[in-house]
UniProtKB/TrEMBL annotation:
Keywords linked to the UniProt accession: Signal
Native species: Hymenobacter frigidus
PROSITE patterns the UniProt entry points to: PROKAR_LIPOPROTEIN
Stated name of the protein: DUF6970 domain-containing protein
Start-end of Polar residues biased regions: 39-48
Signal peptide: 1-17
Pfam families registered for this protein in UniProt: DUF6970
Chain spans, region Disordered: 22-55, 121-150
Every DUF6970 domain range: 74-148
Length: 150
């Protein structure tokens, strides 16, 4: 009886143990008929949470304050998600957007002299500090300045 109880306990323990599951969407279309209600295949692998959009690279010289910000990021441990710095046109001016290090932290937008303009997203609400609520809608001319290579 004791052996039966031990075997049943082992079976339940292994059946209830957390399992790692990997879900992917195929990057190539199916060759056979698709069942009704089945989502269409995508052209990119959806396992990668990164943006499918690739920004053009910014080839302009980096100001000293921006080089210092990059050096500060590199002096810390690698962040997840990695830090990206993008240049945009916003309110007819060049601005630099630095992605948030994680979770509910704010991303930051700086002017060309390194002065903080606003924090357009992040925080508990995800809507930033409220100083530029139209940033996402009105930013333009995206250029990738730098992203952490580690």
């Amino acid at each position: 009886m004791r052996l039966l109880f031990l075997a049943a306990s082992l079976l339940l323990t292994s059946a209830c143990a957390p399992q790692q599951v990997s879900v992917t969407t195929p990057a190539t279309p199916s060759r056979g008929p698709i069942a009704p209600g089945t989502p269409a295949s995508t052209k990119t692998n959806t396992v990668d949470p990164g943006s499918a959009r690739v920004a053009k690279s910014d080839t302009a010289a980096r100001p000293a304050w921006l080089k210092a910000r990059i050096a500060a990021v590199l002096s810390e441990r690698k962040r997840n998600p990695i830090t990206r710095i993008l240049r945009y046109q916003y309110e007819d001016k060049d601005v630099y957007y630095q992605s948030a290090p994680c979770c509910d932290q704010y991303s930051q937008v700086f002017d060309t002299k390194g002065k903080l303009v606003c924090q357009p997203d992040g925080g508990i609400t995800g809507k930033g500090d409220g100083q530029c609520p139209d940033f996402e809608k009105n930013k333009s001319n995206e250029k990738l300045v730098w992203q952490d290579p580690r």
